[in-house]
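Supplementary Text 2. Reproducibility record for the structural model of the 200-residue chain.

All settings were left at their defaults, and a single model was retained for analysis rather than an ensemble. We include the record here because the model underlies the residue-level annotations in Supplementary Table 4.
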Amino acid sequence: MRKSREDTQKTRDRIMTATSTLLRERGFDGFSISDLMGPLKLTNGGFYRHFDSKEALCIEALSHGFTEVRAHLMAKTRTGPHSALRQLIHEYLSLNHLANPGLGCPIAALSADTGRASDTVQQTFDQELGQHIATFLPLMPGLSEAEQRRNVLVLFSGMAGALSTARAVSDPALKSEILDAARTHYIQSFCTEDSSTHRP
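Retained model, structure tokens:
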């Protein structure tokens, strides 16, 4: 019986991981349950032993994606706030992140989709964005928490917009130009000596 519960959890985790990737690659309406379960060699009927609906799964997968990206970005920022923020910007606005939306930031991958989704999906996005703000707030310059909050909102919405735009264009040189311009702008705005003041 114990092994059965463990197997059930492993299967659920496989479904969750695959959904999190598909969701960021294709959006909420870009894949079916068959698209998800087929490559996992699982049946469509088996899906409902783990999740009540596709939307319920997508909501969990959205949170999973945010958690995954926060952990990945924070692992790249193990130095002091000033240097860490520079590393975070480089990592976010990289060609590797550009080329791998399924493993990347849900803000860049899913903002447009989420704006057309259900209230429950939007509320989950709100909560996860709030966690992003709290996680990265200590890295941001600012003489008050309110100023740091404004800066983290500007930074992540701007970087996500640059990444989304770069993914939308077909010219590789233009993709790189967009990322380079955004990276230079945000490093100059938030990582120079004049902008690096942090609260004590």
